[in-house]
Amino acid sequence: MVDQLEISETNEKRNQIIVNRKYKFNLWYTTNNTKVFKCTEYKTVNKCKSYITLNDNNKVIKYENKHTHPGKEYDASVSIVKHKMKNEIRKSSFPFDIKPKRIYEEISQEIGYICPEYNTIKSQILRYKNKQLPPDISTFNEIPDESEYYINERNENFMIFKNSNIIIFQSPFQTELFIEYNENMFVDGTFYIAPTFGYQVFITRVYAPEINSFYSTSLSILNNKEQSTYELLFEELKKNASKYNNNIIITPKILHCDFEKGISNAAIKIFPNITIKYCVWHYKRSLKIQKYKLCHNEVEHNHNIYLFYKAVTNFPFINPEYIFDIYNYIKIICQVYNYYHFLNFLEYFNKTYLYKYDIQCWNYCNDINHITNNASVSFNNYLKKLFYKKPSFYELIYHLKKEESLSYNNYKRKIGGIWKKKEEY
Ligand SMILES: [Zn+2]
């Protein structure tokens, strides 16, 4: 009776056999050219004496079929599903992408009606999946200088620079984009997707006007937000680009960035002729935060103050020649009516946006092109959606690489003319 003998594996070694989907046999001992498996019920009150002997080629040479107990169909099917799922997970070279539930659904279809619920095996499968991942990194110093994970899908090295404060990823394709479209350079940092040990992920992007698209040109993990670290980043990007550009130096014209002096000072130092444009989205967000801190109630409950607040948030779009006058007019009225909290807000605005930063850096009246395109910010939102919690280092690298590959294909398709302008939105 050796019909329908189904053999599964628990791990790389074959040490479990399931027969007719109802009897489980575990490896008992091996000899030079045979393996003997005993029914798992031999230890229980059933004291089942059934066993199976296999030869070198895993062919059955003896099956002692004297079960003292009924078949355990459910128990066997749990094992079969687990073995099959582990096989699928083991086959995948990058286990970050594995969707265990989807694998389960395919397997349960083929198993048929006796199949355990996904939830009963879920925790074991997730533990197995995690064991397949590369070891996690918990400090910046543990980041390796070289890794198979730094090789992108086109077999190119993706990592161009690393020291104790920064690691920079840029593929040759991204370098070429930077050379081609460096007139407007967008940068933004995000803490949300940084691996737990890293301070921030910093992304540089460019805009390709002929196909109306933004592309990332580098992705870095920074250990701090020192100006010197940003300088190093810009210096390396400049160096790498000129290496690919017959040693001709790249000179970006406009840098669009967050209100962070460290970034703009670093950019000016490395690219002396660059113009700094702060991002309107950050401008509005920082005013909103100050509103909550200083004058939320006044703005919400007094319509005049509400209109003043709106006027200030719209300063980036107003002719800069009028800004001081409007600011002073609002201030005088607030003093007359003693709008004490809003005066504090105006003082913050004055110190930050009229003194600390040049109005030209956040005013877009003469250059309306880029105000609606908070390219980096929306890209960060896209990345955020990929991670439901802070990613591990390798998980982040894996996703950055994947994004690089998608944008490579996207760019080649659009620039190749297959892409039709009319399909845009
Ligand atoms: Zn048995």
Automatic annotation (TrEMBL):
One of its GO terms (molecular function) is zinc ion binding. It holds the Pfam family MULE. The keyword Transit peptide does not apply. Keywords: Metal-binding, Zinc, Zinc-finger. InterPro entries: MULE_transposase_dom, Znf_FLYWCH. Residues 186-283 form the MULE transposase domain. Residues 11-69 form the FLYWCH-type domain. This is FLYWCH-type domain-containing protein.
